[in-house]
Amino acid sequence: MTDFLEKGIDRIAILTGAGVSAESGLNTFRDSGGLWEGYDPLDIATVGVLDSNRDMVLDFYNSRRSQLNDCLPNPSHLAISNFQNNFSGHVFLITQNVDDLHERAGSSQVLHMHGSLRSMRCDYCSEEMDAIQKFEKSTACPSCGKAGKLRPDIVFFGEVPKGLDEIYIEIRSADLFVSIGTSGVVYPAAGFVAHARDNGAICVEINKEKSEVTNLFDISYSGLATEEVPRFFSSLLLKNKI
Ligand code: OAD
Q1: Which of 15, 28, 46, 57 to mutate to test the pocket of ligand 1 (most atoms within 8 A of CB)?
Q2: Which of 15, 61, 74, 238 is most exposed by smallest CB count within 10 Å?
Q3: How far is the CA of 176 from the centre of ligand 1 (A)?
Q4: Residues 50, 72: Cα–Cα separation, whole Å
Q5: How many Å lie between the centroid of ligand 1 and the Cα of residue 211?
Q6: For ligand 1, is residue 28 a contact (CB within 6 Å)?
Q7: What does the pLDDT average to over 151-165?
């Protein structure tokens, strides 16, 4: 499965999207007609909606956080963490997902470029902290004591994704870029493949169906993440040992 990798691979950047968590029972954003759990992502993740309808937004993310307690990492999360722990070179994991399934699968490093359900912050004191399981407009900030400005630490449309400087350094230096379970619709993540490719990386996509940027990858595997991801990374580990 990795026979195409003729040159030595030492630095790998992995990008994951909602498709890796789909088989854990978390809905993707766009598979069901552009809705996420019945909501248009633009309605519950756009700058401004916190001011216009904070209760709805907090309620929505409280439910998503609670849903995490009912799902488990699947074989694709486990295969990625196994690879991170056993590959002799450098692996950098970037996820667009706000769930914590990579961490629960044992991934030692995960950059949540769109934020995390497990984190919240206060717009009064700017403190970032572990999220309270359920918080509302009336909940006082544990740091400054003021109520009304706590929000999930999630990057909304119109805000800048987290860790971009570090991400671009990693992508620029990667020999191999692997994109898994993402539709290639939302930028800047959708542009990473072009960036990796321009800097000489071999680019591999694993997705259930063609993404918007499939044509930019050297190799595309179409299939379920729980099958294709373990297959790909175990083949890469094996090749690395020879
Ligand atoms: P999408 O819902 O846009 O795309 C998920 C992709 O995963 C689709 O291309 C599916 O075909 C694929 N897929 C679904 N099930 C799969 C499976 N079992 N195995 C493999 N592939 C599967 O989700 P993302 O691309 O992650 O942003 O969305 C990107 C961003 O858009 C999200 O991070 C979120 C959203 O708005 C923010 O919240 C800021």
Answers
A1: 28
A2: 238
A3: 21
A4: 30
A5: 10
A6: yes
A7: 95
Distance CA 2, CA 208 (A): 19
The pLDDT score that the predictor gives to residue 131 is 97
Instruction: Please report the pLDDT score of residue 168 as a whole number.
Output: 98
Residues paired with 222 in a beta bridge: 207
- C-alpha 16/C-alpha 37 separation (Å) is 20
* Number of residues in the chain: 242
Query: For residue 161, is the peptide bond before it cis, meaning its omega torsion is within 30 degrees of 0?
Result: no
Residues in contact with 66: Cβ distance below 8 Å, sequence separation at least 6, in sequence order = 133, 134
Strand residue runs (E) in 20-140: 90-95, 111-112, 115-122, 128-130
Residue 114 annotated in active site: yes
75 lines ligand 1 (CB under 6 A): no
